Amino acid sequence: MNAQLANLGLDAGRLAFALRTALASCAALFVGWALGLEHPQWAAMSVWAASQPGRGMLLEKSLFRFIGTLVGTVVGVTLVSVAGDNILLLALGLSVWVGLCAGAGNVIHGLFSYATLLSGYSASLVALLGTANQTDMLELGTDRLLTVMTGVFIALLVGLLFARRSDEDALVWRVRSLTIAVLQALTQHSRQQPLSQPLEHLMLEAAQIEEALDPHSVGSIRSRRAVQTLRSVVFALISILTWLMNQGSRVNHNAFLREIQHAINAHELQSPLDQVVVHLQRADEECDDLLLSQALNELSQALQGRKTFRQSGKLEITAATGKVVLHRDWVGATQAMYRTTSLMVLLGLGWAWTGSPIGAYVLLGASVMVTLFSTFENPALIMTHIFWWQIVGGMSNLICQLVLWPMAANELQMLLMMVPLILLGVVPFAHRRLSSGSMDYFMIFLLMSQPHQPYSADAAHAITMSLAVIAGPMLALLAFKLIFPTNLLRRQQRLMDAMWHALPTLIQHAIPFHFWQARMKHRVLKLIAITRKNGLNWAAHGESGLTLIMLGQCIQHWQQIATHSTSTYHQQRHHVWLQRLERALRDSPQATIALLNRYATQEHQRTPQPARMARRAADGLKHVQPHWQRLKRR
User: Fold this and answer.
1) For 219-243, how does the pLDDT look when each residue is reduced to its tens digit (9 = 90+)?
2) Which of 260, 329, 340, 397 is deepest in the core (most CB within 10 A)?
């Protein structure tokens, strides 16, 4: 059966999910109507918004949907109360609020981001629909909350019966396998043997594990902590890969290699993590390379934190959270805030000038689109798909309003007539080539379908409202293309800019080194993932990211000499070297390479190990220099 569906372009799992979600949304529609809610279609919309194929994601997204709706409803009611009949003041207030939510949602990770974005456009939904329809705001806000709660409850009920559990064991197995592979690469490198797996493949696996971690962190505090401990292990492995990628000196002591092999054997046999940690600590004692010793110590701490979590369910701050820092795109968030605010201000001015209720619907559609999809990798592309699906949803709504509903004798019949049109979207939702943006078919159809009696079809009004709402994605598309255009390539360039310009910040002691290094590791993994999606040389970009980590380690050693050296002469020289390096970093990669080589030449007798590190960092930068040519000077 699955093979037959696949031949038709249908995903069996997605088809089952779409069908049960469509039926659940129909159930929410009838339940909301039976409860006497004014907008029962909002309950059906909430089912689509909250439903997830995974149980953990379902639970947490339902919670955050309620929180975001609650905050947005309160803000929307407050804005209308303050603005009164002043449309311009209301539009400006909404523009500021939704813009702030869009900016914050692009900085925050996970479902916190979803709740933040939702609180923005929920305020628009309540304020604009209430103003356009001259509805009592308190009643509308209460109805909005109750419909969302109804939809979320039904989505939870259906989802808990059918949604699958998160397969955490598979992720744990992948992290264990990666740990074994990295340690094997370490022993093979030290013995001058060919690597059984290329280092770039290990980096790719680390990046893919990182992408898979966030979906497993939802649903419970325990899941979030589990992911944090796994991420700390992956970050520790990046330290070892950095040492290997930059051709660290070979540690060929028999005792060191023996302890590493014992750690590999213990991990392969799934022995208690205590045994693995003990062997890593012994290997650390036998290691005469400072950077490798630090990497092994970091890995043993991460595994110790993992063991503590498995025993008690708690985190060791030093072993887990202290070594995990995630990248935040502040530039992209600022651009999203300005883009959202400016578009809404322009549309708000048009609404205030015309005074037409149509302006409220245009502003509503645009606020949802330009906010919710600002976090997508290529929002302009997805907006194109959404635009066409909203046209289909609008046409279905017109068929419902102008053809079917005039034949209905009561509201129950009107609801029954909506069911086939809801189910009509199930197959496209599950089709591999049609699924992108298809959820908006359900959203637009339900948003514009409010059953009530007595009913009188008004073709002009229905068509006008459809065009007003559908204008939202088109305006958002123009905004994403014209106001701080964003796509996957631009996100990659912003990420690389942030990685390079974090180095002068490290020299200025603006952030602690362990914080800088942890964030840089996450950025390297994101860089590998994003360049792979762009069809670029992800292996070379990953190597370039590890080179920046090596350069940061070099900077740390210079700072230690400048601060703790027993020789005042060495302290003064390294203060000067740090100042020169900061200027070179702000100038260009070429200037940085030249300065590192000059340091290695002049200081190799006074400080041999930092000089070797500088030489390796310079060689690494020279190899990957083309990837950093387009950096913006600061």
Assistant:
1) 667 778 888 889 999 999 999 999 8
2) 340
Residues 6+ positions from 116 with CB-CB distance below 8 Å: 68, 101, 104, 105, 108
Rounded to an integer, what distance in angstroms lies between the CA atom of residue 506 and that of residue 137?
A: 51
Residues 6+ apart with CB under 8 A from 326: 109, 519, 522
> How many whole angstroms separate alpha carbon 309 and alpha carbon 302?
11
Dist. CA 119–CA 148, nearest whole Å: 13
Mean pLDDT of 48-56: 78
CA dist 216 and 233 (Å) reads 16
Q: Which residue has the tokens 């600022």?
A: 334
Q: Distance between CA atoms of 446 and 77, rounded to whole angstroms?
A: 23
* Greatest C-alpha distance within the chain: 95
* pLDDT for 490 beyond 80: yes
Quickly list H helices, 438-510: 439-447, 459-482, 488-507
- For residue 48, CA distances in Å to 45, 104, 516 come to 5, 24, 40
Give CA–CA dist 164/632, Å, rounded. 46
Measured distance CA(219)–CA(217) in Å, rounded:
7
| CA pair distance 445, 391, nearest whole angstrom | 10
- CB-count burial class (<10 Å; 0-12, 13-18, 19+) for 129: buried
Sign for the CA dihedral angle at 100, 101, 103, 104 comes to positive
Which amino acid type is present at position 220?
S
Read off the pLDDT of each residue in 59-69 and give the average, rounded to a whole number: 82
The whole-number pLDDT of residue 248 equals 57
CA nearest to 62, candidates 146, 159, 178: 159
pLDDT for 1 equals 58
Q: Is 388 exposed, middle or buried (0-12, 13-18, 19+ CB in 10 A)?
A: middle
Looking at every residue in the chain, the average pLDDT score rounds to: 85
Collapsed DSSP state (helix, strand, coil) of residue 179: helix
282-332 residue pLDDT tens: 888 888 888 888 899 999 999 988 888 887 777 766 544 456 888 999 999
Which among 554, 528, 17 has a CA at the least distance from the CA of 234? Answer: 528
Omega cis (within 30) before 589: no
Instruction: Give the amino acid at 31.
Output: V
Distance, in Å, from the CA atom of 226 to the CA atom of 222, rounded to the nearest integer, reads: 6
Query: pLDDT per residue over 520-546, tens digit each?
Result: 999 999 999 999 988 888 888 888 889
Find the range with the poorest average confidence among 36-40, 252-256, 595-599.
252-256
Q: What are phi and psi of 444, to 5 degrees?
A: -70, -45
Alpha-carbon span 494 to 497, nearest angstrom: 5
Report the distance separating Cα 24 and Cα 47, nearest Å: 7
Q: Which of 454, 349, 452, 297 is nearest to 94 (CA)?
A: 349
- How many Cβ atoms from other residues are within 10 Å of residue 180's Cβ? 17
* Percent of the chain topping pLDDT 90: 27
Asked if 241 and 195 count as a contact pair (C-beta separation under 8 A), the reply is no
Q: How far apart are CA 127 and CA 77, in angstroms?
A: 6
